[in-house]
C-alpha cells in the first residue's frame, strides 16, 4: 500500500504532461495549418503566447532534468524558442513549415517517452504489488506456522497438562523459549514439580500415619486382648509369657524382660524373659535397656525392661507403660481378690463358729450337764428316767439344729434374685406342712448384696420354720416391701401367737435371727398381732443406698 501510494504520488502529473505534450503537437500543427491558409493570422501573438503557456505548464516543467524525456523536452523548448518561434515572429513562414514536421516528430518522440515512462511506472507498480502479494502469502504462511508452533501447540500442551493434572497425573511441558509462553511453561513445570513433591510428601506422611494407626490399632487390640486374658485366666506364668512374646513382636523390640515380686519379698523377682541369656540373678542385674516400673498406688510389683541399645520411640514407651499400668492394675485386683476371698473364708469361719457356739455348743453343754446329773443320780430310777428323757429331747434338738446348720452352710444364692431364693426355700417347707405359705415380693428394683440376701433368707427361713412348728396357723405370709430408703421383711401368721416370755422356748432361733439382724444393722421386732397370730419384722437400709448416701 505504501509503494502504491508512492507510485501514485510520482505519477500524479504524468497524465497532464502527456495531455500538454499532445497540445504542443496539436498547436504546432494548427500553427502550420494556419500559416498555409492565412499567414497574416500567425502574426497574431495570441497563438505564440498560447504555445508559450502550454510549453511553460508545470506538468512539463518537472521534466527539466537529465532523464531522456527531460532532454527531449529541453530540445523541444530550445527549438521552439530558437528556431520556430523566431521564424513566426520574423514572418519567415517557409522556414517554420520546413521545420514543422521535424518539430512535431520531436514532440511525438517526447510524448512516446512520457508514455514509456508512465508504462514503466505501472510495470514497476505491478511488480511491486506482485512482490508484496507474494510476501503477504509468505508472511501469512509463516504466521500460520509460527502461530501453530509457538501458540497453538503450547496451548494444546497446556490443555493436555491441565487435563492430566485434573486427573491426578502430572505432566511436564516442553521448553517454549524465552517468550511469554515459555515463561508460563517454566512456571507450570515448577508448579508441577512442587505439586509432585507435595504429593509424594503427602503420600509419605499418609503412609507413615497409616502405619502409625495400624501399629496403634495392633497395640490397642493387644492391650484389649491382654486385659481380657488377664481378667479371665489371671496373671499366670503361661499367660504372661504369651503376652510378653506378643508385646515384643508388636513393639518391634529385640527382647523384653518381665520381673515380678511379692510384697513380702520385694527384691526376689519371678523373671519372665524373651532373652535366653537371663541368669535370674536379680540383685546383680545389669541388663541395661529401658525399665518401666509396674506400680499401683505406691505398691511396686516389679518392672518390665526392654533390652535394647537404641532409644525407644514415643509410641513404644507408651505401649510399655500402658502394659505396665494394666498389669499393675490386674495384679492389684488379683491381690484384692485373694484378700477378699481370705476375708470371706475368715468371716465364714467366724459365722460357723458363732452358729456352732450358739446352737450345738450350748446344746452339747446342756447334754454334758445332764450326763453329769445322770451319773450322780444313777441310783434313783425315776430321776434317771427324767434325765434320760431330757437327754433324748436335747439330742433331738441338737440333731435338729445340726440339720438346720448344715442346711444354712450348704445354702448359697444360686438363684438370680432373692425372690427366687425365697421361693426355693419355701418350696421345701411347703412339702413338710399343710399350712399355706404365701410370698408378697415387691423388691424387684431394689438390688441386695449377697451378704444381705443370705441373712434375709435365713431370717425368713427360721421365722417360717418356727411358725410351721409352733403357731398352729392356717396361713403364713411373707411380705418383702420397701418403705422409702428401708427394706422391710415381715413374716405373719394367723396362729395362736407368741407368749411374752419366749426366750427359753425359742432361745437358739430367736438369738440367731437377732444376730443376723444386727449384721444387717436392722431393727428386729417379734410379737403377737392384735387379731391373733405372730409378726416378725426386720427393717434395714440396703448397702447400695448407704453407699450412695456416703
Descriptive account of the structure:
The chain is of the alpha+beta class. Helix content is 66%, strand content 12%. The protein is built from 15 helices and 9 strands. The strands form 2 sheets. It has a 5-stranded mixed sheet with strand order 5-6-7-9-8, with helices on one face. Strand 3 (290-296) and strand 4 (299-307) form a beta hairpin. 19% of the residues are buried.
Can you tag this structure with a few keywords?
550 residues; alpha+beta; five-stranded mixed beta sheet; four-stranded antiparallel beta sheet; 12% strand; rod-shaped
Task: Write a brief caption for the model.
With 550 residues, the chain is an alpha+beta fold. The chain is rod-shaped and about 230 Å long.
Q: What string gives the helices and strands in order?
A: HHHHHHHHHEEEEHHHEHEEHEEH
* Number of extended strands: 9
Q: What class, by secondary structure content?
A: alpha+beta
Residues in helices, as a percent range? 55-70%
- Percentage of residues in DSSP E strands: 5-15%
Spatial extent as radius of gyration:
70 Å
> What shape does the CA trace take?
rod-shaped
Spatial strand arrangement across the major sheet: 5-6-7-9-8
Mean pLDDT: 77
Ends distance: 112 Å
Q: Count every helix, treating DSSP H or I runs of 4 or more residues as helices.
A: 15
Note the main sheet: 5 strands, mixed
Contiguous low-pLDDT stretches (5 residues minimum) are: none
